[in-house]
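Hey everyone, long-time lurker, first post.

I ran two proteins through the pipeline my lab uses and got sequence/structure pairs for each. Pasting them in order. The first:
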Amino acid sequence: MKPTLPASLSSSSASPSGPQPSSTVSTSRRRLSLGLGAAALAAPVGLRAQPRWKPDRPIVIYNPFAAGGVTDLQMRYMADKVGKALGQPILIEVKAGAAGTLAPAQLMNAKPDGHALACMSINSLRYPHYQQTNWHPLRDFTYITGLSSYTMGIVVRADAPWKTIEDLIAAGKKEPEKFTYGTSGIGGSGNLMMIEIEQTTGARFTHVPFKGGAEWTQALLAGTIHFLADAAQWAPFVDSGQLRILAMATEQRIPKYAQSPTLIDRGINVVAHSPYGLVGPKGLPDAIVQTLHESFTEVFADPGLQSLLDRFIQVPWRRNPQEYRAYSEKYFNSVRPLLVKAGMAK
């Protein structure tokens, strides 16, 4: 988007007291030019001379995962801050299911006026490759801002018989499909991570999909599944001693859990990436996009938000609208081979 700059002063501009001498006009122009240049440098790209949008009624943000999980907690925290800044409440409405893709789908019938938004996970960039949808992630949404990225790992109860990831893999080879694991859904980041692990190691497990981290964590604690393979919404329970990490699906070890190896450390070359962000309906005006991006970005400076993310070993995933769209286009076009290899796409 090209910024709209103020019109230049014409040579016939006059002061209230009449025409100015040419030297005075020249000096005034130089001062104005310098002033505009300084303002342009100070203003964020895309916000120069843009009118600040104000909502005229409450905003709804659709949450793709179950209430009580880290996504829900983060969205509610940020919505409270942004709503106060914009002068209207922001309501979080849970639309969990279909591996976290139902939330952005709600925007297909929404007006592009800024009052209906959705949190979109990376799953929405995979789903159309193996499931027919009435929406397309690159054509039907307006990208607003990146929010955070899930930190993935494999976790068991503290009293589980497996002490290492090697123990779990050995069990999955000895008794294929006997042991169950929970994730956010079929085709989600956790499910794909486990498919890659199975293809690499020869072990086989049974997948049990849930609508969000609060649900799958309670299932593990209750003993209805054997382990988790998904985002670190389990971290507080590791800290309390109820759960134990077998391996992290990160490129490097997490400082907080430095004693916990990565899958790569154990010779399993699998890394799970799972960022998410905020989107709006197709055709959302630039002024609304930039106002929302700026408002949500400002909340990243709030120590309370970072404290919340730290509980689940997550970090902000800061992306402006252009960066978020570029990431999504690249990922959507590059992930298909992995899905084909996993048997989830043709």
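...and the second, right after it:
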Amino acid sequence: MLIDYSVEKIPSTSHGTLRMLLPDGKSTILFDDTIRQIQKTIHLEQLGEYRLTAVFFSALSGKDSLERRFILTGEEYKVEMSARFERERRNYSDWKSKDSINSGRFTITKYSHPSPLVKMKYIRSSTGENNEFPGPLFIVKNESRDTLYGEWLPGYFWGTLSKWVEGKYVGNHSGQICTTWADEPPLYPDSIKPAWVASFGIKTPPGRYRFNLFYSTENNIKGSATKIYESETFRWWSSVQNWHLLTCEFETKPKDSFNPSSKH
């Protein structure tokens, strides 16, 4: 589990604590109150339910806490936990608001291997009938009973590219993300949908690549959080999400590189 914690944006009279209850019933403190920012990795050895409690304290707003739970089944390969405390506008939709409130953003993201019934295939090096987007283009086929959702918009499957360099895939290259596209339904069971890099594709010079695509069986925006609780002195934002990484390896040759004037 990767832990990302910060209370740096709030005066030094404030601090936080993160406690974890393990599946076997034992409790541990992941960091103490004296640390204002930390990033570290711990190894979760047990399967079952974990309970994480983020605690915030300041002389101004007193003490507040929020518990979130997640379950490890053995299919996960990474868990990310973020607890970040800061001062934000009380009316967060009003940019001119001068009244503020302490807030905590407490998120847990699990990353799991994809279902064998969700498959992806490389189609060609450009998207659209007239090569309007640089490639590559893929097809995602959902043979499972789950409805699948993309990272940014439910009905769009946009991913990133890693390139084969000196014996391994490196980088996580993407293009522009635009969330103002027209609504599209998610990927229902026994259906297919196209997938490509970001919203408008990306050029792929000759080489060997891996396309990395995250999908979820719940309608989430990756990394987002919703307002869970608010009092006169504190506001909590939180989410617990599970994302599945689907990959596809492919190779482009010199004749496959994007050419806006070429025709199929």
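Reply from user beta_strand_b:
Welcome! Quick read of the second one: Residues 256-264 have pLDDT under 50 and may be disordered. Residues 210 and 249 are 4 Å apart (CA to CA).
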